[in-house]
Design brief:
The chain is of the alpha+beta class. The chain contains ten helices and eleven strands. It binds iron/sulfur cluster (2 copies).
Length: 251
């Protein structure tokens, strides 16, 4: 795409070139501490849910019952999942208090990334093309700090690499060619499987162990660790939803 054809970004959004540095830091001493944990729409990825289980000690099913909202709007291929906000007049995150985030070590990718935005798209085969922007919102005082870093530094400092890696593994499913061409419209049963395998991993494990007949396949070996089970779930969905696999196998 010619740069002249690129959509104009709002003034508060700054596109970052590869290696470009920016000044930013966030810590309990900033005057806006936890401001970004309120009045927000917090989308959850499958890996976010997997990690929030560890941060809360809740099963994926309990997390859904207590803290996760499912939404599927007209035109959506798959449902989307969001963290519930508290009705305290400020729409605060359920996990924030005056000391900060109660699940900090397992906070979702969107929280780790802010104020960095990342777009990742599949190119040829398994290649992922990414670009980054900075969201310079008025309430965020972190840009007044003097810590200089680039995207790679920031990604590493926030533990985002693993989150990005898992989120990119979803590309063969949610960016499948049949979806991009408008040729795939999941049935209710396929939507149920999507939710089960990606967002309710504890129930998914039980279904696999019990050889639930509603599952499209029963692998011989069920991975003991949940990270690998999530990748298996992605593969299982790709294999059962599409007539062809137009990309990588995640396992
Ligand atoms: S999960 Fe933690 S970091 Fe993310 S919005 Fe909630 S309190 Fe803030
Ligand atoms: S608004 Fe910015 S500086 Fe303030 S707590 Fe959030 S990320 Fe940190």
């Amino acid at each position: 795409m010619n740069h002249k054809d690129r959509p104009q970004l709002p003034e508060s959004v700054q596109r970052l070139a590869e290696g470009e540095t920016f000044c930013f830091a966030c810590h309990p001493g900033v005057p806006c501490f936890t401001e970004c944990c309120r009045l927000l729409e917090l989308p959850l990825t499958p890996y976010d849910v997997l990690r929030l289980r560890l941060g809360t000690g809740l099963s994926s099913t309990e997390l859904h019952n207590r803290y996760i909202i499912e939404e599927m709007l007209e035109g959506d291929v798959f449902p989307k999942y969001y963290l519930t906000m508290v009705d305290d007049g400020r729409a605060s995150c359920v996990f924030v208090d005056k000391n900060g985030c109660n699940v900090y070590g397992h906070r979702p990718a969107a929280c780790r990334a802010y104020p960095l935005g990342r777009a990742a798209m599949r190119a040829c085969g398994d290649r992922i093309v990414e670009y980054h922007v900075l969201l310079k919102e008025a309430h965020c005082q972190g840009f007044k700090e003097t810590t200089s870093q680039n995207v790679a530094d920031y990604t590493k400092s926030q533990g985002l690499d693993t989150y990005n890696e898992f989120n990119d593994k979803l590309a063969p499913l949610i960016q499948h060619r049949q979806i991009r061409q408008g040729l795939f419209h999941p049935t209710r049963e396929q939507i149920r499987l999507y939710r089960l395998a990606l967002y309710d991993i504890d129930t998914f494990r039980l279904c696999l162990e019990n050889k639930d007949p509603s599952l499209p396949a029963h692998p011989d070996n069920i991975p003991e660790d949940d990270d690998t089970l999530l990748l298996l779930g992605i593969d299982l969905l790709v294999d059962s939803f599409f007539t062809e696999n137009d990309g990588i196998n995640t396992l």
